[in-house]
Amino acid sequence: MDIRKLATFVDLADTLNYTETASRLFTTQATISKQIKSLEVELDTILVDRTHRAITLTAAGELVLPYAQQIVAAQKQMSEQLHQQAVQLGMRLVIRAVPSISSYKGFNTIAAFTKQHPEVDLQFSEAETATLLPSLDQGDVDVIFTRLFEIQHAKYDVIIGESDHFVALLPKDHPLATAKSLPVSTLANDQLLLLSESTGLYQPVIKMLTAAGITPKVTYTGQRIDLIAGMVNRGMGVAIMMAHSVDLKDYANIVAVPITPTVGSHLAFMRMHGKHSVASDLFWAFCQKRL
Questions:
Q1: For residues 192 and 104, what is the distance between their CA atoms, to the nearest angstrom?
Q2: What mean pLDDT is predicted for residues 272-290?
Q3: Mind listing the domains of the chain with CATH numbers?
Q4: Region for 235 from its dihedrals, namely left if φ exceeds 0, alpha if ψ lies in -120 to 50, beta otherwise
Q5: 32 — alpha (psi -120 to 50), left (phi > 0) or beta?
Q6: Per-residue H/E/C for 8-22
Q7: Which of these, 35, 51, 32, lies nearest to 2 by C-alpha position?
Q8: Which helix (H) or strand (E) holds 150?
Q9: Is the bond preceding 171 in cis, omega lying within 30 degrees of 0?
Q10: pTM of the shown model
Q11: pLDDT category, 88, cuts 50, 70, 90?
């Protein structure tokens, strides 16, 4: 028996309203109705009286309800106990990563780890780059996946996965679009569309432009790579991004031209020095073999 159907029935018995239950369970009214009917077929009985405008439970529904409540409560308690046990045994692993992680090997590494170690309670989420190191320092996470412009970090264990470098994203009709590479100084007169400071890439770009002796004309800053790429695709300006962070197959009007001299970064997993959980050590050993 599908525990979700019982949970839906228990909630509907509380609300006696398909729309309210659908809202509480973050689904649709049609899905709620389908689950209740499926449960009725499975139990070979009618649980809900639908003959009137306001729904009520049938006699069979009233009989089933306390059993369903017990089963749902027991399942919830079991899940909570399993989660608590995982925490106590050090099998909970919290990882936060830069939003562009799906473009890098680190994403595949995490996916492969979860398949090989289903016993680990993985809590994985993305966060803005500027928040990653503070969350590690404060002990909110076990491991982060972030971008480094300097490898030396005495406080942390570091595993470098791969490297990336800055490129200029240009519309295909831009005068420099056919260049094999270009000095960043050649973008002095272009309208620049840049990732904001929270991404960790704004300052390195500004530093690179300033070192080239130009005052950049920044007309847009934002956090979404896809939005900036869409703007370049429509000829609204030029972007400077890491080469592997954007997939250009969805943008027919963009070319990526490497910037010289090359300014690169490293994509890395990081954790604090010192005592670690069992899950953290499992993940670290897995990364060392894979990356």
A1: 25
A2: 92
A3: 3-88 (1.10.10.10), 162-265 (3.40.190.10)
A4: left
A5: alpha
A6: HHHHHHHHCCHHHHH
A7: 35
A8: none
A9: no
A10: 0.67
A11: low
